Amino acid sequence: xxxxxxxxxxxxxxxxxxxxxxxxxxxxxxxxxxxxxxxxxxxxxxxxxxxxxxxxxxxxxxxxxxxxxxxxxxxxxxxxxxxxxxxxxxxxxxxxxxxxxxxxxxxxxxxxxxxxxxxxxxxxxxxxxxxxxxxxxxxxxxxxxxxxxxxxxxxxxxxxxxxxxxxxxxxxxxxxxxxxxxxxxxxxxxxxxxxxxxxxxxxxxxxxxxxxxxxxxxxxxxxxxxxxxxxxxxxxxxxxxxxxxxxxxxxxxxxxxxxxxxxxxxxxxxxxxxxxxxxxx
Length: 281
Fold this sequence. Notes:
30% of the residues lie in helices and 27% in strands. The two termini are 35 Å apart. Helix 4 crosses helix 5. The protein folds into two domains: 24-96 and 180-248, 3-Layer(aba) Sandwich (Rossmann fold), CATH 3.40.50.300; 108-178, no CATH class. It has 281 residues and is α/β, with parallel strands linked by helices. The protein is globular, with a radius of gyration of 20 Å.
């Protein structure tokens, strides 16, 4: 079972004057989740919780179960065992989930333009959202979101005509249009240019500062260090969970990836960044 954050009750005057920092209860919880595809075990006994206002990276090799875990958390895939729960927000609402799939899993030949893709992200409860994409308020909001991701002049461009980085920006815009309390992204940095990576980092940090829960999958250790305050190493199960400096160590990376892994250690000196590569054997 998931352990709830400890609550310390002061027993003396000194303790009462220096209370422990408040730790919020998890917003999203996976409780002993396992997933089988036929006879293949994709995830085994995963128990983990995610709070509001944190950015978490799921790091592991291809085929490690990162995408499977995201789909289970999103409610798109039922676990074979265990359960996933979304705990109510302070206002009593159940947290809404926004999901950004891998680019490789999308049919980019489908004849739809950028604005329509973003409008598809309108919350289901929005009146006539699905039937009237020309609704003026929705259109205005969609254009605002496109401006936020640096795509204001591509509203009527066919999605298949865009570059990989532009397509990723559009799918992030659709997720922002949903305005979910939990944002799940599957390999958002893969196959995109550096400006798009930097934009994604900025937007994800902004969502975290708004109190959203941001969880993304990656096999890029550098992106895990740069973007997340918490890292989960995944390879069929949770190998390690914690701050990047504590989790991205030679021992845990060897257990997760096997073979050889290059770790980049960035240290700032006089405003400059030196990158040192350590090879895990």
